[in-house]
Specification:
Number of strands: 10
Strand order of the largest sheet: 2-1-3-10-4
CATH topology of the largest domain: D-Maltodextrin-Binding Protein, domain 2
Mean pLDDT: 85
CATH architecture of the largest domain: 3-Layer(aba) Sandwich
Largest sheet: 5 strands, mixed
Distance between the termini: 41 Å
Strand content: 15-25%
CATH superfamily of the largest domain: Periplasmic binding protein-like II
Order of helices and strands: HEHHEHEHEEEHEHEHEHEHHHHHHH
Oligomer: single chain
Low-confidence stretches: 1-31
Shape: globular
Radius of gyration: 19 Å
Structural class: alpha/beta
CATH class of the largest domain: Alpha Beta
């Protein structure tokens, strides 16, 4: 799998408890005039790992914290990054590679929270039984960068074969990837949990070859990023946003039916697929309810990005991930 540097990105892309009472406690702490906030997200339609944003909006967590939030799903991390660069959004949620690239170029974007853990798996033809078995095969990728691409490269290197031993076909979106697998043009591809389950329900000849969370557990998967200047000017808004997200994602763990119904509506996936995905995400605690990552994960991932040419040097974890806002939010909501 050949490495590709992200060269043109300017701005990028604990305990679980019921949050209803906590969210209600904020209802009278803000004026009735809501602060407008726009959030751009890396996938359209959204995958279930992103559902906390829709829950926070639809279940009123944003509003109770004084925010009027518009969600802007994009086709991928690059598009989400460009929306922030163009000033169309203040917050971006997606892969950490875009944040790292933006920081390396101009130091004008910082990560403030990790919204979720790694739910990506490598789905392959059943004739392939190990990652090393991908030697000489073709892997489909939705983009020539991003977490799926980077995790694929790391997993391949860890298996003992070279990334040059595997071909890559960059295809746009799940329909193209699924079609290419059905036609035999590619033999494997990385999918989010709901995408992978949908594919396997339709094609009995594929299976989960590897879970990236197990293959590369120290990888920093995804984050919310903001322009540094925005955080300095609007710290209270950033904290309110994170309060809302923590409350919403804690709520999701205790409101299975409601979360599944919202997920069916916004992801467009079949109810049975969504239910299985929900159970997988909750069992593995992949929706963050705290800080969501460690400095060690950040440092490891930045080292990988340097090796892959995404960033020229490795910044300190504390430089690229500003924990000030999430710690302030957690002090308010508890945890």
């Amino acid at each position: 799998m050949a490495t590709t540097a992200t060269a043109v990105v300017l701005l990028a892309a604990g305990g679980i408890s019921t949050a209803g009472a906590s969210a209600q406690s904020h209802a009278t702490s803000h004026s009735t005039k809501l602060t407008k906030v726009t959030v751009t997200l890396a996938l359209d339609p959204p995958k279930m790992i992103f559902m906390g944003f829709w829950v926070a909006q639809q279940e009123g967590f944003f509003a109770r914290n004084g925010l009027n939030v518009t969600l802007m799903p994009e086709q991928g991390g690059v598009q989400a990054a460009r929306a922030v660069a163009a000033g169309d959004a203040y917050f971006e949620a997606g892969g950490t590679d875009a944040i790292a690239a933006a920081y390396a170029q101009a130091g004008n974007l910082e990560a403030i929270w990790s919204y979720g853990g790694d739910d990506l798996s490598l789905v392959a033809d059943k004739s392939i039984t190990s990652i090393a078995g991908l030697k000489g095969k073709t892997i489909g990728a939705g983009d020539a960068t991003g977490p799926a691409f980077e995790l694929g490269e790391i997993a391949i290197r860890n298996s003992g074969i070279s990334t040059h031993d595997v071909k890559v076909a960059v295809l746009n979106g799940r329909p193209a990837l699924v079609g290419a697998m059905a036609a035999g043009a590619i033999q494997a591809a990385a999918f989010h949990v709901d995408d992978g389950l949908t594919l396997m329900s339709k094609d009995p000849n594929v299976h989960i070859l590897a879970s990236f969370a197990k293959e590369v557990p120290q990888y920093w998967y995804g984050a919310v990023g903001i322009p540094v200047s925005y955080g300095k000017k609007h710290a209270s808004t950033v904290v309110a946003f994170l309060e809302s997200m923590i409350e919403a994602q804690r709520w999701m763990y205790t409101h299975r039916t409601q979360t599944i119904n919202l997920s069916v509506k916004y992801t467009g996936e079949a109810p049975a697929i969504v239910a299985k995905s929900y159970d997988f995400l909750t069992a593995n605690k992949l929706w963050s309810t705290g800080v969501g990552m460690t400095d060690a994960q950040v440092s490891y991932t930045l080292t990988q990005y340097k090796d892959n040419g995404i960033i020229p040097t490795i910044p300190k974890a504390t430089d690229i991930f500003n924990q000030t806002f999430i710690k302030a939010a957690l002090a308010k909501v508890g945890g």
